[in-house]
Design a protein that fits this description.
By secondary structure, this protein is mainly alpha-helical. It contains five helices and no strands. The chain has a domain of about 40 residues. Helices cover about 65% and strands about 0% of the residues. The longest helix has 26 residues. The mean pLDDT is about 75.
C-alpha cells in the first residue's frame, strides 16, 4: 500500500487537473455557443417572411375593423386573415408527415402482445 501512495505522491497531478479543468470549460463554452450559431446560420431567409406578416399586421391594426365578409374573403386566401398564404408551403400537415401516430403504436403493441 505504501508503494502505491509513493507512486501517486511522486506524480505531479496538478498540471493534469488544470488541463482537465480547461478542457471542461472549453466544452461548456462550445456547447453553449454552437447551437446559437446553428440557429442563425441563415437568418435572412425567415426575416423577409416575418416582415411581410408584420406589415400586414400593422396595416390591419391601423385600419378600421373589417366586416365579416371582408374577413371571410381574406381568410379564404390562406391560413388566416393576417398571415394569408405566407409560410403555407413550409407547414407540415399530418398527411405530409411520415410518422406513426401514438394511437397506431398502441394498436400495434396490443396486437403484438395479445395477437389480435
Amino acid at each position: 500500500m505504501k508503494a502505491i501512495q509513493n507512486i501517486f505522491q511522486s506524480l505531479n497531478i496538478r498540471p493534469v487537473r488544470a488541463l482537465l479543468a480547461a478542457f471542461a470549460c472549453a466544452m461548456l463554452f462550445f456547447a453553449n455557443v454552437l447551437p446559437a450559431t446553428a440557429a442563425t446560420s441563415a437568418p435572412q431567409q425567415g426575416e423577409a417572411k416575418l416582415l411581410d406578416v408584420q406589415g400586414e399586421t400593422e396595416d390591419t391594426a391601423k385600419s378600421a375593423p373589417p366586416d365579416l365578409k371582408e374577413v371571410q374573403k381574406k381568410s379564404e386566401e390562406g391560413l388566416n386573415e393576417v398571415q394569408g398564404a405566407a409560410g403555407k408551403d413550409e407547414m407540415i400537415s399530418p398527411e405530409d408527415a411520415n410518422a406513426t401516430s401514438f394511437e397506431d403504436k398502441v394498436k400495434e403493441g396490443y396486437k403484438n402482445i395479445f395477437g389480435n
